[in-house]
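Researcher: Here's a chain I'd like modeled. Treat it as a single chain, no partners, no ligands.
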Amino acid sequence: MTNYLFYKYSKGISLAEAILINNNPVFLQIQNGKPVLSEIIELDNQVIVPPDKSSYLSKEYTFSSKEEIEHYIKRAKNETLDSIYKKEKNVWKKYFDIDNETLTLCAADTIFTYFQGKLGMTHYLLFVGDNSTGKSNALRIFHHLGYRSLFDVSITPANIYNFLGQFEEGQGIILEDELDNIEKQEDKMKIYKTGYVSGAQVTRIYDNSNNGTKGKGQQRYNTFCFKAFSSEQQPNYKAKGFSERIFTIKCSPGSPPYDISEVMNDTGDPKYKKLFRD
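Model: Modeled as a single isolated chain. Structure tokens:
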């Protein structure tokens, strides 16, 4: 029986999300309004395993106890998509000083990341601007509000393959800061050009050596998920296919009520601690 690591799994079962309870990895399923926790999920010839804390490439979901999960389930029953959207937009307003239409798009996309697998197609966002224009802060907001984000600079194709995996799509979202000269990164640009629609995969050869034998094998990796980027400049004409999949948001210096970097590193300030909890 083969073990596979998953952030989430839903094929043939109710959605199972990998979480940490007191740093212990388990799968969480909501069945009949109640939380069901499992250390593994056994399928026909596979065992689905949640990642431990050291294995996460995205921001993990952590809880202190099963009772805390029950508390959030109770709160969620009082929410609608409209109420969640309003809360999301209010958070964006605190940290991103930009026009209302862009705030609307960012808040809606934040919610969309949790349903990307159901819709099967996505656009990308590209925040373009000089230094100190808030473009990186926009990605930080997505990092804390969006679904299982891989947030980094200089993300390689291998990073993407490892994160999105071979099996179930939509294991998370990708946020790449400082995406400059994408037109010179052909392998990664091809991944981003194809990864806007469900079912997109790339095939790669890997070393299949085992027990002293030598050989090559092939594996297919998913590329579909929501993605957002920041850059100091718009991609040039060589990245036409990539550019057709993005909404470009031009950033300029502004004065948001709060700096998200300060909130995420609150240094004990009670005001920032409350904002962080929100």
